[in-house]
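One such shown below:
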Amino acid sequence: MAAHTISRTTLVAVLVTTIAALTARSWLQIQLTESGMQKLVAADLSYLVVPPVLISLLFPLWRTEKAFLASQFRRKDLTWKLALTAIAIGILIRVLWWSQLIAGASFGVYTSPDPKAIVGPIISFQCGSPGVIFLGFFVMAILVPLIEEIVHRGYIQTALRHRGFIIAVVISSIIFALFHRFSSWPTVFIAGLILGTQYFFTRSLWMSLITHATVNGLIQIDWRCLSVIWNPSLDGHLLLIPGTAALVVMLVSLVILATLLWRLATGTDNLPR
């Protein structure tokens, strides 16, 4: 991590201002939704208020922290190998999510209590208007990762670095999860551990930012273009083939992900430190 000390005052200011910005975003999102705007569009459009709120309220801080922020995005730290490894890790995270979902549906972990819901699989791929898609990707794959990585890895994790790798990464991941919806806490916490590990050993936000952007970009494809309806009947006929295949994919993905992170931690990948 960068050799920089984050004071308690600075950390509190960043957290409080982030909460204020997200509160303003939530209020605006509610207003837009109540006015008849589509929920996803309202969510994306309302997030545009977050950057100006953060910049304006933290302007005095940015002036004193500009050297630290610049050190997090040094051009020499961004290499093709780092970028490709970060993208691969982001893809693996999403593959893990899909494989556990398929395995869970196959083995009865995820079920619907409504017997009429037993249909599928019905798969379709149809995206909305280009403007809506562009707005979604701009917000969720660029703005959100940039702001969240600066706040949660750049400031929170850096402020905890003196307590060691485990405490710094775990606590920052917990706080990262708390800034998301309750239903997504486990997934976000695990993602935070991976992003925090990347940041700890590269001492730069490039890798965690690219991985974060990759994950969010793939999620946008799921939300805005892909539709899957599958509620398999489990009346004594568990779906062993898709369930087992999903578990195999999950295991292989975990091994590859662990290998990449281990190489990063041990320095055998020659990525910048």
User: Anything to note?
Assistant: Residues 75-266 form one domain. Strands lie at 122-125, 226-229. The mean pLDDT is 90. The chain has ten helices and two strands.
